[in-house]
Amino acid sequence: MAKGAKTTFRCSECGWTTLRWVGRCGECQAWGTVEEETAAPTSTVTSPAPVATAAQPITEINVESAHAVPTGLSELDRVLGGGLVGGGVILFAGEPGVGKSTLLLETAALCADAGPVLYVTGEESTGQVRLRAERLGALAPKLYLAAENSVAPLVSHVDAVNPGVLIVDSVQTMTSPEVTGVPGGVTQVREVAGALIRLAKERGITVVLVGHVTKDGSIAGPRLLEHLVDVVLQFEGDRYSQLRMLRAAKNRYGPTDEIGCFELSDSGITGLADPSGLFLTRRAEPVPGTCVTVTLEGRRPLIAEVQALVASSYLPQPRRATSGLDSSRVNMVMAVLERRANVRISNADVYASTVGGVRLSEPSVDLALALAVTGSVRDVAVPRDMVAIGEVGLAGDVRAVHGISRRLSEAQRLGFTRAVVPANSEVEVEGLEVVGVDDLGAALRAALPPDPR
């Protein structure tokens, strides 16, 4: 070993390092993923070298190349902050089968109208990608396909095509001849990503890297990868639902509190400018055990419906089943209902879910859940034109939530005429009757008719 070289051991899953070998990673607790890694000796003296571009006063910097160019998909542009930026590197991650390649292929076809786009696939053949593009209607003369698993041939394709956008699907399948290691390992992913980032910055092209995720939903590979790129996008969705959501975990060119909504179908993936209708059940008459609420996904208000079913139980320990809701939050709300509002559910099975496969984890859903459970117990229904927004505390109080004016404006736009909100909200919306409540008992009296029993 060369003098000064240092041997460390690194986890191939999460990038955790240690000075000695261990069988189990101390960070992600994975077995058999710690591999030996030799670092080259470093010098403490840095010699001056020629610069590529001389430093300039900030007032003289040209910002034309930093402007975002729209992709043609409004929901994607919303999350990106306006579109794609030349020289930017985007890490696009999501679970298998969620629709990452479908969305990027349609985006590539739209961007190809303005200039050449190179789509490099390391997981499929070009024929397979062509067949999918035909099915999606994503054929464009300036969309180029290449099947490669090495960075060196990829750079040759870039030299030949000179694209404005480069899509690499996926970064875990690419390898670099400069380093050793298996494809998808920490060393290979770090080197491949570094080479593609340098390529993007030197040539001013937008690079989109598709990334795999681990079992817990985090991006596979070293965490350093997320720090190096400019934008980190998470594509989420239930495989049994048509709804897909795009979130920005990191964005140097725009906000990180915007979401994009898409609908996945056999003919492709389309943006949903108004997705609230997916989360409501259309019925002629109100049904006991349902309540509508307004949740905020980033800056975007979404109308969603919470459903609850309370049934007699013959088990020593009654069932508690949830779908689309935080189970611990549901259990807390039920405990508050029984202790503070005298709603007897300790000996009953309780099933709580959302409509349309949407995931609601915001505390503002508590009040709607409480009304749905109580309505199911009493067999009375919340009025169809009413929404409920508020967080329920352990003392039975109804707490304020942020963005209440945006939530109520969305409810009024969709035809709701009454809203039950925390008493200290102090907001007025034309055409909407706002009822402020201090505690859970007042909310039940305002939203539900008296118990017929």
From TrEMBL:
GO MF annotation, one: ATP binding
GO cellular component, one term: cytosol
Segment forming the signal sequence: none
Pfam families according to UniProt: AAA_25, ChlI, Zn_ribbon_LapB
Domain of life: Bacteria
Domain RecA family profile: 65-213
UniProt-annotated binding residues for ATP: G94, E95, P96, G97, V98, G99, K100, S101
Alphabetical GO biological process terms: recombinational repair
Keywords: ATP-binding, DNA damage, DNA repair, DNA-binding, Hydrolase, Metal-binding, Nucleotide-binding, Stress response, Zinc, Zinc-finger
Coiled-coil stretches noted in the UniProt entry, renumbered to this chain: none
Positions of region (Lon-protease-like): 349-453
CDD domains: RadA_SMS_N
Keyword match Transmembrane helix: no
Intervals of motif RadA KNRFG motif: 250-254
PANTHER family: DNA REPAIR PROTEIN RADA (PTHR32472), DNA REPAIR PROTEIN RADA-LIKE PROTEIN (PTHR32472:SF10)
Entry text on domains: The middle region has homology to RecA with ATPase motifs including the RadA KNRFG motif, while the C-terminus is homologous to Lon protease.
Its job: DNA-dependent ATPase involved in processing of recombination intermediates, plays a role in repairing DNA breaks. Stimulates the branch migration of RecA-mediated strand transfer reactions, allowing the 3' invading strand to extend heteroduplex DNA faster. Binds ssDNA in the presence of ADP but not other nucleotides, has ATPase activity that is stimulated by ssDNA and various branched DNA structures, but inhibited by SSB. Does not have RecA's homology-searching function. Plays a role in repairing double-strand DNA breaks, probably involving stabilizing or processing branched DNA or blocked replication forks.
Family designation: Belongs to the RecA family. RadA subfamily.
Protein name: DNA repair protein RadA
Organism field: Haloactinospora alba
Phylogenetic classification of the source organism: Bacteria, Bacillati, Actinomycetota, Actinomycetes, Streptosporangiales
